[in-house]
Automatic annotation (TrEMBL), chains A, B:
It holds the Pfam family zf-C4. SUPFAM superfamilies: Glucocorticoid receptor-like (DNA-binding domain). Residues 8-83 form the Nuclear receptor domain. GO terms for cellular component: cytoplasm. Keywords: Activator, Cytoplasm, DNA-binding, Metal-binding, Nucleus, Phosphoprotein, Receptor, Transcription, Transcription regulation, Zinc, Zinc-finger. Coiled coil: none annotated. PROSITE patterns: NUCLEAR_REC_DBD_1, NUCLEAR_REC_DBD_2. This is Nuclear receptor subfamily 1 group I member 3. One of its GO terms (biological process) is cell differentiation. It is found in: Cytoplasm. SMART domains: ZnF_C4. It comes from Oryctolagus cuniculus. Its main location: cytoplasm. The lineage of its organism: Eukaryota, Metazoa, Chordata, Craniata, Vertebrata. One of its GO terms (molecular function) is RNA polymerase II cis-regulatory region sequence-specific DNA binding.
DNA sequence: GCACGTTCAACGTGTTCA
DNA sequence: TGAACACGTTGAACGTGC
């Protein structure tokens, strides 16, 4: 039987293997990272061609504009609809604290990671 | 068909479906967990904006400060009178940064990413 | 049975490296 | 550019006490 694991696990943007829901869309790691970087840096990106470039696994690098377009078309969005842009979702202190923790912290990191099948 | 609309089963904080009374207010699971975590960890949380952020089901994650504010406004509180199970909560609330900084340790590269059984 | 605390997978974000 | 890692919050499921 064709199990459910390979069927609905395709990236909504390029068709690559999706790793989960990122920014409200089922996407791969590549499109997740691309969207995160691009949507802030180049919101007004325009396609030098017809604006209908193919966005497949192999072609996705060729036209960032159309890729971003398809990301948005797939429903990807930063969750900042009504509020102005939050620099960080939590305490708005992305700088010193994170840096400090990163440099000086040794976390035990004892995640049990038991098999717990939850439906979400 | 159950008349769900007549039942006032909405979270007093975010309007999501409430699961019962938690900390003296009718709230959802999310706000219950949020309040329990936050009221101990970051009692001095402040909103980086005007302090009047929307706290709805969709927006509740964006501003913990305003969410906590609304939790308190809804009447949520830790009842330490009869449930003083905690030996000593160790507050001192010097700010969220110190909470991380006082860990003061060294980074350790552990492969925390175990095989996670994604079942979705 | 309800309320509380705990657990942990899912997810967002920053960083690093090839 | 993208895979992997690090670290945090979130919230549903779960166990427990009253």
């Amino acid at each position: 039987m064709v199990s459910e694991e390979d069927e609905p696990k395709n990236c909504a943007v390029c068709g690559d293997r999706a790793t989960g829901y990122h920014f409200h869309a089922l996407t791969c790691e590549g499109c997740k990272g691309f969207f995160r970087r691009t949507v802030n840096k180049y919101p007004g990106l325009t396609c030098p061609f017809a604006g209908s470039c193919e966005v497949s696994r192999a072609q996705r690098r060729h036209c960032p504009a159309c890729r971003l377009q398809k990301c948005l078309a797939a429903g990807m969005r930063k969750d900042t609809s009504s509020l102005s842009v939050h620099p960080s979702p939590v305490f708005a202190h992305p700088g010193p604290c994170a840096a400090f923790a990163h440099t000086h912290c040794r976390h035990q990191h004892l995640h049990g990671a038991a098999n717990r099948q939850v439906h979400q």
